[in-house]
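does this look right to u?? pyridoxal-5'-phosphate version
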Amino acid sequence: MSKRPYEKPVINKLRSGLMNKFGWSPAYARKVRTAIDGVSVDELCGQFGSPLFVYSERTARRTYRQMFNAFSTRYPNVVFGWSYKTNYLQAICALMHQEGAIAEVVSAMEYDKARLLGMPGEKIIFNGPHKPMAALEKAVSEGAVINVDNLDEIVDLETVAKKLNRTVHVGMRLNLDAGIYPQWSRFGFNLESGQALDAAKRIARGGRLKLNGLHCHIGTFIMDPQAYAREITKMVKFGYELREAFGFDMEFYDIGGGFPSKSRLKGVYLPPEVAIPGIDEFAEAITHAFSEALKPGDFPKLIIESGRALIDESGYLITSIVAAKRLADGTRAYVADGGVNLLFTAFWYKFNVELDREVGGINETSVIYGPLCMNIDAIDEGIQLPPLKRGTRLIFSPVGAYNNTQWLQFIEYRPNVVLVTEKGEVEIIREAEDITDITRRERLPKHLELKNGK
Amino acid sequence: MNRLSQLALSDEGFVFDPQTGDSFQVSETGIAVLRALKEGRSDEDIAQQLVAHFDVALEEARRDCTDFRSQLKNFGLA
Ligand SMILES: Cc1ncc(COP(=O)(O)O)c(C=O)c1O
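got this back:
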C-alpha cells in the first residue's frame, strides 16, 4: 500500500478579514523556486553550501542595458557611474565596467578597489565627505573626477593643486530641495541658501581650482520621477549662473542615483510592480527637464550613479531552515542559517520569500529568525507559510544591493557568493570565510597567551 | 481531553467549538490527530498511526504531535 504524502498537522483559528484570506490563498504565499537561471537550488547548495548568495549575470547585464538604453535613447551624452558602495564585489564591479559604466567611489578604500580592477583614474568619480589628503592627491594626479563636499576639502584641493603646480578641475556636490523628504542636506553645499554660490566664489577667488561639473544625489528609493526633474532643472540653472558669474563651464551634470528596485519597503503595501514607476518614466522626466533647461547646442555629460536599481534583482540569498519553533504566544517561528548578519537591508525591506519545493498544508502566520543569538535577528516577522520542516530552503530576493557591502562579520562566518554566468556555469566570486579571516588581523600580547587553557 | 471531545469535526477540515463559537481550519493530518486525541490515544500511538498512513518518519511525526498539542493548548482546546 503506498502511503499518502505528508503535511504537518496544523490548526488555525478562522477570523474574518485579510489575514485569513491570505492564509487561505496558497497562491499568494507559496512561491516556489527550484532553480536560479536554470541551476537547481539543490545543486547550488550541494556544491557551495548554505547559506549562499547567488547572482545572475544574465539579469545584471539585462538590467544594465535596459536602464542605460532608457537614458541613452533620450539624450546623446549619458554616462553611468557604478556606485561601488551598493556592491563592490569585484566580479559585480567588473561586470558593470564591461557594460560601460565608470566607477563611482566614496572612500579611499573604494578608490583603491576601482584602481585594483584596472579602472584608470579618469574613469573614477570620487564623491563623499571623507577624502583623506593622500587619497585626494592620488586621485587628482590620476585624473579622477572629484566632487567637492565641503569648504575644508576645497582648501585641501588647493593645497594639492599647488603641490602639483597645475589647475585642478573639480565638480561641486549640491544639496537642494527637490521635494523629497527628508532632504539630504549633510552632503555638499546647499543651493537655495546661497551656500553653493559662496563656495563657487571661494573657488574662483582661490584661482587654483576650476569648477567643471555639478553633482547631487537627492536620496535613495525615490518613487517620484518629477523629483529628478526638479533636481536637474535647478542644477542646470545654477550651472548657467556659474558661467555668467565666473566663466566656469559645466561639462557634466551628475544627478546621483536613488532609483527604486523591485524591493518592497516596509510599510508599503502595494506590490512593487504596482507601486514603483518604471525606469522609462524616470528617464523621460529627467531627459525632458534637462533638455528644457539647457541652452540650444549644449550637450553636457549626464552622469547617473544608479546603484540599487541596477543590481538588486540580480541577487538571491538561499538559506536553510535549521529549526522550527512555536513561540509562547503560539506563533510559528523558524530559524534560518542566514539572518540580518547577511541581509542588512532586512531592517528596511520585506523580501520576496520563495520555497525550494512545493509544501502542502495550511498557511500560518510565521516569523523567520536568523541564526544570531540576538533579539534583533528577524528577517520576516509576519509571513504566511505552510508548515515547513528542517532543511527546507528559503530563497530571499532581491538582495543584490547593499547586502554584500553592509553585511556583518558578526557571530557567524560569511558564506560563499557565486555567480551564475550567462552560459549557465557557476563561479565562486567570494569564498566563504573561515577562522583565519576572523583572526588574521588580531595580535595576542604575549602575556595573554593561554597555556593549557589557563 | 474533555474539552476536545466536545469539538465538532468535519471531513473537509473544519472544526467547531460549541463552547466558544469559534471555528478552526485543520489540515488533513491535523484531523487525523484530533480524532485520535478525542479517542484518548497516546502521542506515541498517534505518531505510529501517522507513520502507517503517511509518508513520514517516526521522529518527525512524534515531533509534530507535540507541536500540534501546543497549538491546541494555545487555542484553549486542550
Ligand atoms: C553619491 C551617491 N551616488 C549614488 C548612490 C547610489 O544610490 P542608489 O543605490 O540609491 O541608486 C549613493 C547612495 O547612497 C550616493 O550616496
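The two ends of chain B are 6 Å apart (CA to CA). idk if thats expected tbh
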